[in-house]
Amino acid sequence: MVPLKRRKVVSPNVGNNTGAAGGGDEAPARFPGVVLFLLERKMGASRRAFLSQLARKKGFQVEEVFSDDVTHVVSENNSGDEVRTWLDSRGGDRGRAPAHLLDIGWYTESMRAGHPVRILNRHKLQQMDEAEVVVFSVPSYACQRRTTLDNHNPVLTDALSLLAENAELNDEEGRSVAFQRAAAVMKALPEPLTGMTQLRGLPCLGEHSLRVVRDILESGASSEVESVRQSERYKALKVLTGIFGVGAKTADRWIREGIHTLRQLQHSGRALSRAQQAGLEHYDDLNQPVTKAEADAIGEIVERAVVSVLPGARITLTGGFRRGKLTGHDADFLITHPEEGREDGLMSKVVSWLDSQGFLLYQKTTRNSYLESKDGPVRPTSNMDRFERCFSIFKLAKEEKQGPKPPGTLTENGVKNQNTAEDARSLGAHMQVKGEASPPQIDQNSENQIRSGEQRHRVSSEDGGVEETKPAGHKPWRAVRVDLVVSPISQFAFALLGWTGSKLFERELRRWAGREKAMSLSSHALYATKQSRYLRAASEEEIFAHLGLEFIPPSARNA
Ligand code: 8GT
Ligand code: MN
Asked: Is 299 in the pocket of ligand 1 (CB under 6 A)?
């Protein structure tokens, strides 16, 4: 149950308002947009007259008769329903923005402050008549509900997501997940939220999230969210973790050492990992959203690599693009072969092929460590150690228009023969520009620049971003983050489900499996703890069925 009970405020306290300081009290109507109406009912005529006069003296506009201009209705000892009934009997405030129905406490505080104080929940009259209020109902787990990209409450979800991100950047995972869950509930609402009463009974909305929602409903913004957004620490964490290879812990350490910007980092002489050097080198490119067209173009390249080293192997675009997103921070691909075991050793061949063709600016292939770290008690199956992942940065030729390629240009030879950007563009293909692979050279440059503080190719821009001193717009290619994963066919459905996301949807699936079904789900397998056995699945649908969940298609997993 949402804690919406109105607290009785005996002695109003004005310490927590954030409005402008109060001042003189002579000028009339100092507060445009605030038109008061004091309800005589239960207040009495003489007290009403006295209070009206006092307010006018303080510069408030007070109407004698209720009209369309009234924005704030103040009453004493009335319930919200009583005031609403009274208003309705006068024609009400239908057909315009409804007036605030406020308790006398708001009036008293405002008079003391000398200006209209921010409306808090305790100031508002609660209306118990919910006959016409749409009360939303949302199942508890994100994996039980459909969340499409059609978000009816973007301001609320952006605010909550920012708090989630900030908590994550500060290494507070529990808080981050709580805000993510609250944001996900808001994303699932079928229409814009208009009042707090609509949230009654909704899951995952803690006191803190509710406060943020309330502030935004009442004043259009949350001061907490805005102050985080503007804070130096948040901005520095964003800039530094925007470097590929830099996580929250590293960023925090650098900030404590006085490094807030890329320029400061470059001049600090800090030793950077190979990934971080590449991340810094391609900072601007990697912080540009990847488009679906670019992801598809990379998909074609990866497909060529895969089929040329293992005919019959298949690739699937996963991650946000599989959920229908139009942009993402990277492109995620899952690779498999219909015959179990044939995928063995595939990753290194694919990576070698891509590298030899000059498509890779950076790559690091790792054995998948997801299971060991995050997924708890799933027992490794015999082929688990074949599950490999490659984090890479692709060199993708730019193209004015994304479109189908003319036939005959997708051969290895074709790629090898591309020596100029013009050639690449005239073929309409996303191909690397140079015939030679160049990652070591780039890494070396980057390392030299960072270690020696030389800025031959780049300078830091004022906001901490990096700009190419050579005109970046003329660079005929861009860097794109690409993740490749190879899965044996027996695990493909689990890998596909696990890599499609969203991250919260995945987390909720695993939580559901564990808490509600005594099962353990990973990107490799589903394990039924009680029966001590693995549940096989050849499709995502079968996994949902094992879990006793209605199938949620990828486009509705955008929690
Ligand atoms: P994006 O559009 O910003 O790229 O967002 P996304 O595509 O939804 O997220 P992502 O960070 O690219 O991750 C894609 C999916 O892969 C997410 O659902 C995430 O849970 C999953 N994922 C990782 N890392 C790992 C991992 O190590 N193993 C597995 N199985 N899944 C992972 O991010
Ligand atoms: Mn992704």
From this structure: no
